[in-house]
Amino acid sequence: MSPVSSSPTTTISVRFRVTAFPSCRSGAYRSSPRCRFRRGKSLPVGANAATRACDIACVDADPDARQDTQDALEDAGHATVGCESVAEAADLVSAGDIDCVVTEYSLPDGTGLDLTAEIRERTPDTPCILFTDASPERIASARHGDVVVEYLPRDTPEAEASLVRLVENVVGQRSQVGYPLPPDEDERLAALAQYDRPGLAAVDAFDRLTALARAHFCTDVAFVGLVDAHEERFLACAGADWETLTREDSMCTHTILEDEMLVVKDVDADPRFADNDRLDELDIAAYVGVPLRTPRGATVGAFCLTNGEPRSFSADDREDLRRFATEAMDQLELRRRLAEAGGDAPGGSAESAANAAGESGLAEGGATPGPDGGTGAGGEGR
Predict the structure, then answer these.
(1) Which domains, and CATH codes, for the chain?
(2) CB burial of residue 102 (10 Å; 0-12, 13-18, 19+)
């Protein structure tokens, strides 16, 4: 996510962003009797053409503070629904399309960071904003790994107007690209540039790896893909002749948001993909993908299986797929190191050495190659 003005943005140790303004000190879902949806006023004449009415969940245990937040957003033409707890808000977001969540830090059953982490598990591309009196130091002391959330102090001058601008900015960013972006997208793309080198698509090791995976899992297609700024490029694709796919259409766009893996047993039953005509054209009815993660933690692509009919993937299947992903990432890492040592030309001595290493790894690992641990991925995903 990005700040809403040209002022600098500070990233604190728990990786939430302090949104700074010139006047700032620190630089279709279902309603219920408990959470009734309130439609805001029409957008004012002359409003920015990129601005649209947003559906916003406002989470605060203090009814007066929550009401003030809802009033400010509704006066700007947006629709709001109020919640008072982590559990209530997480269930609401899971029930359908919420454009943005604005939350207080302290909640009866946890914190705003707890809520953000829960939302990241359920709907990873939903923007979250901490609108709170809690200090950055207090929030930074919480242990939440890589949870990333926008932060706006309530005591900022004209805080409610700043909140409206921030909501419109983060929602507008999400809408303009048409697909969810990882919070570290810029860093991820910089890491990808170190691995996405000329000639990778001609590397035999990836072809052998995907052919083995396709046979091992008895699935229609197995592929290795790198996800760049606008498309996914397939390094190898056993069972199909895919070369590229736009990020709007690629399921791996969602896989790279996952800590572990993305499992979709029935694509038509998943609201993220049910209306994706391109997936129908490619005969993708089931999917499982493991992120390809560099030793420093950047996700550059995915190792995936697809099937023309819905199917499940057992715990053993998932563990084996992690090994394939680990091997694929090891191959990418090996080629990066050899290229940096001066052997970048495909087919040259460095490439031959890398292919030989790949053949050795495949021979030792059989149908489920790769060492334990390393750069593949962890436990079971969604």
Answers:
(1) 10-177 (3.40.50.2300), 185-365 (3.30.450.40)
(2) buried
